[in-house]
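Handout, page 2. Input:
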Amino acid sequence: MDTDKLNRQEIARYLGIKGERPDERTSALVEEMINEISHLATPRYTARVLEILQTPEGVVLNPGGLCLNSAQLKALLKHSSQGVLFAATLGVGVERRIRLYGTSDVLKSLVLDCVASEYIEKYCDEIQQEFAEQYAPKGLYVTRRFSPGYGDLPLSVQADCLRMLDAHRKIGLGLTPEYIMTPHKSVTALFGLSAREDKTLGLPKCAFCSMRENCAVRKAGAYCGR
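Output:
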């Protein structure tokens, strides 16, 4: 992926820098870690196009019969009869370097972690763009993506999503008993293929988040971008 696409302001926000430009030292370290991650990351993904059936509690994905009980997800996919479930990862190299720096240079570990967070988000954007271009000739649009643990969708469905994607075999993803993926810089998400264009793409997603009333990021005038 072209690292010029990485949003330096987002990286600064992940670092807790609010409303001001990072100092020269921090900016230089961010660029150093961006250069480093370009050599460390091995981004891969696996995806399935699935049928979406609406239920009173949420949606069911077929084939496979995966039930996702979420009113917010159901609303997002109300014009979608198909959707794309995917898992993406930056690979183990990034995680190992973050841990190595954690024992020798905590600041580098922190900055690389924040750079990796922005990198995986931009990689997911690229995945969606691939499908947007593929399905545009059919008159279909991609919706926003929705991940386990977001809004009212339980994090516990992570296990079912990974099984449905055969993500361990295909891209090496594992899952802890707490439903945290390994490598950590990994994402699972679902987005719809809709007959209607999603006008909320690219906009802050606070209106859809169950944490909006108590969110410190939102109160500071920013948003988490997820």
